[in-house]
Design goal:
heterodimer; A: 121 residues; mainly beta; B: 107 residues; seven-stranded mixed sheet; four-stranded antiparallel sheet; 0% helix
Chain lengths: 121, 107
């Protein structure tokens, strides 16, 4: 069974940094692209970033481009999201999501429970 | 980027009734559309991908149709556990985008 467990969320001030981690298990992590999707509580879903199985291709939403960096460590079956220059509007629940195939397939077939990031002064 | 517009925003139905949810894309995305279900306090769950393919373990009462710009999710007979928010998502044109959601609530 696929299991995705996010960690690293918290309350931070605007302009600071935070790193989210996602520990994956139950599947061959290095065979699949991975994504981060966020959701403001009570609102809709927003795709944030994705990375191919071998880290060769990465994509970002315009809203986070230049501030967030996605990475992965296949040896540790882990996905990361480095978030710099955080803004109040980055406040959301961040989901770690497995893709059904490669990066541009973007069929999001397994989701973690999310890590809450709150940006406030 | 592709804008997905879902209708209606809220659908009020009774258990046993049929639910029909719409998703319209701002330009053609072929059949590269997925549907997700989200219940309160839970992560989204993939129901349908590529417009009409059911994901693993999804009951047959969930079906999807459409291509190009107009898509439909149909729930044949609503079970109590089907009352939730449903999102469509496209992967036809990068970046992936989501609709704003349709809430299916108990009448």
């Amino acid at each position: 069974e696929v299991h995705l467990a996010e960690s690293g969320g918290g309350l931070v001030q605007p302009g600071t940094s935070l790193r989210l981690s996602c520990a994956a298990s139950g599947f061959s992590f290095d065979d699949y692209a991975m994504h981060w999707v966020r959701q403001v509580p009570g609102k809709g879903l927003e795709w944030v970033s994705g990375i191919s199985w071998n880290s060769g291709t990465r994509g970002y939403a315009d809203s986070v481009k230049g501030r967030f960096t996605i990475s992965r460590d296949n040896a540790k079956s882990s996905l990361y999201l480095q978030m710099n220059s955080l803004r109040v509007e980055d406040t959301a629940l961040y989901y770690c999501v497995k893709s059904m195939g490669d990066l541009y397939d973007a069929i999001l077939d397994s989701w973690g429970q999310g890590a809450l990031v709150a940006v406030s002064s | 980027e592709i804008v997905l517009t879902q209708a209606p925003a809220t659908l009020s139905l009774s258990p046993g009734e049929r639910a029909t949810l719409s998703c319209r894309a701002s330009q053609s995305i072929n059949n590269y559309l997925a549907w997700y279900q989200q219940k309160p306090g839970q992560a989204p769950r993939l129901l349908i991908y590529d417009a009409s393919d059911r994901a693993t373990d999804i009951p047959a009462r969930f079906s999807g149709s459409g291509s190009g710009t107009d898509f439909t999710l149909t729930i044949g007979r609503l079970e109590p556990e089907d009352f939730a928010v449903y999102y469509c998502q496209q992967r036809g044109i990068w970046p992936p985008t989501f609709g704003q959601g349709t809430k299916v609530e108990t009448k």
